[in-house]
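Exercise (ungraded).
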Amino acid sequence: MTNITRDDVLHLAQLSSLQLADDEIDALKDDLSNIVGYIEQLSELDTEGVGPTYQVTGLQNVWREDTVDDGGVGRETLLALAPDQHDFQVKVPKVL
Amino acid sequence: MTKISDYRGHTARENVERALEKAKSVEEYNALLSLTEVRALERADMVDRGEITGRLAGVPFVVKDNFLAFGAPTTAASKMLANFNAPLQATAVEKLEAEGAICIGKANLDAFAHGGSTENSAYGPTKNAYDTARVAGGSSGGSAVITALDVVPFALGTDTGGSIRQPASFNGVVGVKPTYGSVSRYGVVAMASSTDTIGCFATTAADAQLVMEVMAGRDDKDMTTLHEDFYGAEQVKPGQKIGLIKQFMGEGTDQEVREKILAYAEKLRAAGHAVEEVDLPIVKHTLAMYYIIVPAEISSNLARYDGIRYGYRAEGVRTLTELYGRSRDEGFVTENKRRIMIGSYVLSSGFFDAYYQQAQKARTLLIREYDELFETYDALIGPTAPTPAFGIGENTNDPIKMYLADIMTVPPSLAGLPAISVPAGVSQSGLPIGVQIIGPMKSDARLLALADSQEEK
């Protein structure tokens, strides 16, 4: 059975943009090991020559006109949702 | 419990005031996260002045708090969206409002709909309508309980792997998970886009039919909605052939649950339908498929919560990377993190074929097994859940045990099939038990007609 290590947890957390607190890591290590251990059973199923199903309705290429539509929501309404804003722009900490 | 028709002949204000009063009297269940009182009363007066008319004029309802709706924040029961005031409303809510229905509040759920008990809510668990020491089921637990407590005649939920059917079963109400693509998901917090559906709770199958009929249909804002209209009410077809899924009637299923399902099958026979045992051997693999595909889609859908444009932003961060990482760590509950990280795992290069691709191939095999059965059978039945409602705290330390509560509801979700849960009686200790009725794609109205024909009038 796959064993998820502490390093694996930290790697997955990084891939997932989660900065875990120290006390979360060990519990997640055990939980993720158990979950991966469970889902691994699917390898027993013979799927040779079977195609994947990514969606179930068979709808393909649903088109619409490429027109500008604000969905009834203005810029100010959306900007008001941002935790921090300045001069009609969303404000974030220094990037570089 | 009241039906939609019981609300006719009263003013909308009377209906809404009664519902609000009742909602306040059942606060101990923690079924609602907010009331939309001011807006609800305003809309009630509009209905009473004749400004809004329709098939649901003056009928109060509740939405699961992952539907964007005006009048209160849309939290998805998370800290991440604690103060999120929706700038628009979900299409489903708009359609109900256009028919005169009035939203009075927003119901508790597992945060971001990740869970099967409503214990993963950032605002505490919802208690079962029949026994407050037990779970409501989930993730749409609040909607199920508020319907069962007779606060409103119907409530909206979302069902990705059982989140309407299982709590419906645990609280003795009707729960509908429609054919994938029936109802627009525009304005609903996304979880797993290939199985997310929008449905409802009601006290009768006929009421559920009406609510679904109003909500269903193509929406230009959700390109996955089906183009044809198949939700018109139907009469029950006599002499149906119904398969009882053998795999769900074995040792793993509670004895009392099995007895109630067999009793329901007998009732169907007495009404002139043929019921026989059928095989669906692949179901032993479906939970593994589900817990690969769904976390994969979750990890992608929940990437949008970054603390930048809306939602929770951690305090005192100095860099952008820290802002993302800490906002997400503090804004999500543990189960959200488990699923996001499992999603990242199964989608990682090197693991993609072994997990994600394998699960999507297995899904094809599941659909084939259903297709074969539906060549012979009009519908399939079985339990909605292996047990009645379990105790609060009983499964919280064991994610796998919690996931196993979904084992019967997950298969139709992966295949996109319509499935409903209807009450099949109560256990000796007084807990409701539900029977699940599953049909081929677009047979929703036919399933509801069958359920309606079995209700005691």
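Further reading is listed at the end of the chapter. For now, observe: Residues 288-354 of chain B form one domain. Chain B has a mean pLDDT of 97.
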